Amino acid sequence: MAGDGRRLLMIFAHPDDEAFSSAGTAARLAREGGEAYLVCATRGEAGQNLAPGLATPETLGRVREEELREAARILGIREVTFLDYRDGSLAAADPTEVVGLLVRTVRRVRPQAVLTFGPDGVYGHPDHVAVSRLATAAFHAAGDPKAFPPPEFGAPFRPARLWYVAIPREEAGEMFRSMADGSEDMRRWMADLGWENLGTPAAQIDAAVDVREVAEAKLRALRAHRTQVGEDPLAELPPEAAERLLSVEHFRLAAGTPVPGRVGDLFAGLA
Q1: Which tens digits make up the pLDDT trace of 78-111?
Q2: What are phi and psi for residue 58, nearest 5 degrees?
Q3: Under 8 Å CB-to-CB from 10, ≥6 apart: which residues?
């Protein structure tokens, strides 16, 4: 392997999903000599547009693709792969087809760690929930030659760990209430999930990655998603929440090699 041997594969639904959840972790890994890869299931063409001068409803998907590629360059992500599903349709996609595409990527990249949303999609977004389910299935299937047989799907490979994005419950309400002010869909999803269920209890968080040294890169990557965040991606957040966003990223271990208590590195203890 190139670099220091650590490889992370992030699997998300939309451009900008990585920016708020794990951009700092990817940037830190790249800075330390590891490799980060990203799969994005859609181009986010059904999203909002806070920069109408940059995109129209017809061009938004193409513009968001370029925004994600710019953010990836800033963070040092080695490769961005789009699965070409339509924004909002992931829950209705053929699961065998999607998992097969993801298995191919896992087997080609051969990451030690896979990262995606948890089953609640952080705040109940249907595409987030779907990508969690599909990425989790791919994590388990990638090592099973009977599930997706070689050579068509590549040689079997089982990553060591599957991680889910985790927003600490004590912080989630404050952050999501601010974000929901500008989105009727987000308010509906969070209301359906239940405000009291937003976020991950502290006892379930297995990794807290310090990203302060790459905070500038994370902020620049956030700003690259101009159509989604406008001029100031942190404007809607209370100052304390904005500072936390640029300081630490949290995750919970969903499957694979256990960790010895809470760790500061997704690869802790792996050879």
Answers
A1: 999 999 999 999 999 999 999 999 999 999 999 9
A2: -75, -30
A3: 18, 22, 26, 36, 37, 38, 39, 114, 115, 116
